[in-house]
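Might I ask for a little of your time on a matter of protein folding? Here, with my thanks, is the record as I have it:
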Amino acid sequence: MLTGRGRIIPAMEGNVLGTSIRPTSLAEAARRHGRFYARYLHAARRAAGKRVLDIACGAGYGSACMARAADSVLGLDLDAELVSTAAARYRRPNLRYGVHDLHQPLPGGPYDLITSFETFEHVRDPRLCLERLRDALAAGGTLMLSIPNGTKELREQKDAPYHQVHFSAEDFRGLIGSRFPEAEFFSQLYRKDVWHYLRKLTGGGGHHARNYIFAPGLLEQAKTWLAICPKGD
């Protein structure tokens, strides 16, 4: 049971729901699903020459983004249909996909970089899953993990039926700190600039990935929080 102000809601059949985010290209992902794709762009800066594991890879666009720089990327998801979509749509010699439940020990490894974006609000046992990720990291490796701001989510009654755990900032720090005492925390925020307004004027619309920043700390106004978790030698 989590402590703090987070709330656990009853487990749902199937544990993790499929996603409707299925861009046909990385450009479309950046333009139409910028809030999600921005996290992968952020991770890709750390992926150069690394062995990367992408947990809850969904339709594969984020794994493909990181594969442009990484030595190798393995994308895993519980949804077999999404994995098939990913494998058909995003192909690179250094990119593979597979079906896997995060509650089970992870295949391959160790990995230099593991990404797990918008995953832990769906799982049955967050502490077990975090242990699985730590076990799969190489010494000196890094985990990048994001979750929705559960306090904001509950207050606005968004996605409550779909998430098993709503994390408060206290919950998130406690969970991550139990296995990664040196973790840093960030808030994903949208920054409007001239390109944002030009897109609106030309009918481009959407919050483009390039306009997202990651500010230090777990800010109340943020929709999404991110932890960057180094594993010691």
